[in-house]
Amino acid sequence: MKVRPGAVVRGTGVALACLATDEARRSPILIAGFACGWFLDRPGLQLATVVPDSEEPWKRATVPFATSVASWSTAMLVATTALRRTSLPVPIAALVLGGGLVVVDSLLADLGERRDAVDADEAGAEG
Description:
With 127 residues, the chain is mainly α. It is 77% helix and 0% strand. The two termini are 31 Å apart.
């Protein structure tokens, strides 16, 4: 498994959001983590990414970014809130959720790269 820098940034953002005591501060931390991570590399799993059927470059660049960051931030906000309500100590919950995200994100990115390589090999063999 190749650990991606974007996955580390996203996982760190999730862990920091989980550690935040003020609920109002969690959402901006998550959005910042996922936005910064997107520019390093796209996540392995994108919950809801909308790719517009448009030839305008600004739409094809910003809409997938905005929908992916918003959907992941929302999902992780729910997860951090739920974990903070368990009897698990907050630092351990933050480590589990942030570390788990890094591992899952990196594994899914590896699977996606393998699938793309197989598809490219098949396309090369056909042509």
